[in-house]
Specification:
Elements (H helix, E strand, L loop, with lengths): L2 H8 L15 H12 L11 E5 L2 H8 L2 E2 L3 H9 L1 E2 L2 H7 L3 E2 L13 H7 L3 E2 L1 H4 L4 E8 L11 H21 L2 E5 L5 H11 L5 E10 L31
Parallel strand pairs: 3-4
Antiparallel strand pairs: 1-6, 2-5, 6-8, 7-8
Helix pairs in contact: 2-8, 4-6
The structure holds flavin mononucleotide.
The site of flavin mononucleotide has 10 residues, from strand 7.
């Protein structure tokens, strides 16, 4: 296996708590930012600004932001769940239901579950990380003729992957937190970090050193011949 493929395959979402007293070093942070810097972006627009948050007071303010789960998330999340490792291994896409609270994996009245779920603060998501990266973009700018800024979003994904692979290589835990780009949370984060109105949050990343082992579950991917079409479309039976 080539070295690059090994880093790609070893890269993973690190959802366990991180050591609160151990932020990545300045050198390692710079390596991660250098990887972001060289990411491909549509039209070389370099359509991103990255906020590094490692100040204890600022982290505390972010941790205190409250968020609430939406009915849409609950409904659509449920459709992607597997309820046993065997099911996940067979489906090869989606995630294991046991990652979520029981009420999120029991079909029912999602609006009621959403209403009844407690507001929770972001400290449960940030889980003690001593360093966060908040990736933002300027919503007023987009690559030429890119409807709905889709090329811009792809570019933000390239930045994500470059940083993730570098963190993996440096032995630093990395987890994407999409919730930072969600409506009410985004507004609160923007206030705390004094992010101008015209900028939007794409996602946040928690970086750090895990203090516990993740629970074991299979990492699944489709086989290559499950998603490749040679020369013309071939129906492979997937919906
Ligand atoms: C655009 C995007 C958004 C994601 N949002 C989250 C998130 O909010 N929380 C999280 O734990 N993982 C998030 N992930 C990670 C995926 O769930 C994860 O990459 C996928 O389940 C495969 O697992 P792996 O990263 O361990 O290989 C996100 C990934 C991408 C590319």
């Amino acid at each position: 296996m080539t070295e690059i493929l090994k880093v790609i395959q070893d890269r993973h979402s690190s959802r366990v708590p991180f050591d609160q007293g151990h932020a990545p070093s300045k050198h390692d942070l710079m390596q991660i930012l250098e990887a972001a810097r060289w990411a491909p972006t549509a039209h070389n627009m370099q359509n991103f600004e990255i906020f590094v948050v490692d100040d204890k007071k600022q982290l505390e303010r972010l941790e205190n932001i409250e968020s609430k789960i939406s009915e849409d998330f609950l409904r659509e999340n449920y459709q992607q769940l597997s309820f046993s490792e065997e099911e996940l291994l067979q489906k090869k896409v989606g995630i294991l239901g046991s990652m979520f609270p029981p009420s999120w994996r029991t079909p029912g009245d999602w609006s009621k579950v959403a209403r009844e779920s407690e507001r929770s603060s972001l400290d449960q998501t940030i889980k003690g990380s001593a360093m966060l990266l908040i990736v933002t973009y300027d919503a007023r700018k987009r690559a030429p003729a890119s409807e709905n800024d889709i090329l811009g979003f792809m570019s933000l994904g390239c930045i994500m992957e470059n940083m993730w692979l570098m963190a993996q290589e440096l032995g630093i835990g990395f987890q994407i937190m999409s919730v930072f780009g969600g409506n009410s949370v985004e507004q609160d984060v923007k206030k705390i970090l004094e992010i101008p109105e015209y900028m939007r949050i794409a996602y946040a990343v928690r970086l750090g050193y895990p203090i516990s082992r993740p629970s074991k579950f299979p990492r699944v991917r489709r086989e290559i011949d499950g998603f490749v079409h040679y020369n013309r479309f071939e129906d492979m039976g997937f919906v």
